[in-house]
Design goal:
two-stranded antiparallel ribbon, mainly beta, 6 strands
Length: about 120
């Protein structure tokens, strides 16, 4: 799946940045107004602590997580307000400020809740 949040980095930035995060782990289907947790982990070539953030695919981005040791799992939750298909991706930053491009996305499909769909029928 193509990632519209790509970026370009010069060679010096790439050498200092953590490794690009993989697609986040989490649900592939859910309902509106329900919070779902997504996780990601990555490493820094110099062993620096890393923070991560998520782009939720709905115009919102999370705040950066607290710096954690490399390979630690970063977990954040999000709830979507409208049904749809959303591409979620992560970005990593080490404590020196070197930041990766946005990693590959994972898609989640959000539908109306069962209660909302039965009251609309």
């Amino acid at each position: 799946m193509a990632n519209a949040l790509s970026c370009e980095m010069d060679n010096a930035s790439v050498a200092l940045a953590p490794f690009m995060p993989p697609p986040p782990d989490g649900v592939s289907k859910g309902e509106v107004h329900v919070s779902y947790v997504f996780t990601v982990s990555t490493r820094d070539p110099l062993g620096n602590p890393i923070s991560c953030r998520f782009d939720w695919g709905d115009g919102e981005r999370s705040k950066w997580t607290e710096p954690c040791p490399p390979d630690a799992t970063h977990a954040l939750a999000h709830a979507w307000n409208k049904p749809g298909k959303y591409d979620i991706c992560a970005q990593a930053r080490n404590i020196r400020g070197a930041t990766t491009c946005w990693g590959p996305a994972v898609r989640v499909t959000i539908t109306e809740t069962d209660r909302e769909s039965t009251t609309m029928s």
